[in-house]
Amino acid sequence: MELSLHQRVYVDLKEQIENGVFKYGDLIPSESDLQKKYAVSRAPVRQALARLENEFYIEKKQGKGTFVKYSLGRGPWYAIGGLGEDYKRDWDKQKSVTLSVEYVGVEECPDGRRLFSGQGKIVKIERLRYVNDVPIYYLNQFLPGYLDIEKIRAENNFLTIRELLYQLFNISVHHIYEEVAAVNAPEKVAAALGVSALKPLLEIKMSAFTAGMDTAYYDLDYVNSDYWKYKSRGNGLLAANKN
Prior knowledge:
Blueprint: H1 5-18, H2 31-38, H3 42-54, E1 58-61, E2 65-68, H4 84-89, E3 94-105, H5 112-115, E4 121-131, E5 134-143, H6 149-155, H7 161-169, E6 175-184, H8 187-193, E7 200-209, E8 215-223, E9 231-233, E10 236-238
Antiparallel strand pairs: 1-2, 3-4, 4-5, 5-8, 6-7, 7-8, 9-10
């Protein structure tokens, strides 16, 4: 998926903030300075800053400028998620392959009747995510049924569901709830990941919501923990390093 101008600015600024180039409380460059740096007009810069502000990375102070609001333990949920550090570290080594995109009944999604109340059908996406061409993740992702399924199918091998939702439907995720357990690999998943059906995998159940607490998506994912680790520490969830 090719990034638009404002997404390029957004992604680069977000990575600089998460990696400590801009630290909590720092004043970030002005709009005009960002225009020069990224060789874009004012509109993409303002779009990127608006999204960063909406996701609590930055805050504007009248008459003073725009300051970094994010720091470890203060930032948005995906910056302190259990696998967040792995995502950042191995971002350029990842790829995703979409296996299927289809409508299913709400009962196929765990807790679907509550999460997608009043919807007769929802969108289910099955995907594999690779790191260095090794399948690590098997993803079952459920989205609201009112979304345009043909737009989703056209994107095919996108990397993250959050970028897909934002780029195609202007939906931003603000809240997340996760459950993590060690389970034996379901037969279909074991075959896709190339592991034994007796192999313990991390099972991650994730409910994601908009600022207004509408369901953005639900994930039922399986992770080969030989490669990616999940660790809880302090008040946030942080990923452990690989072996």
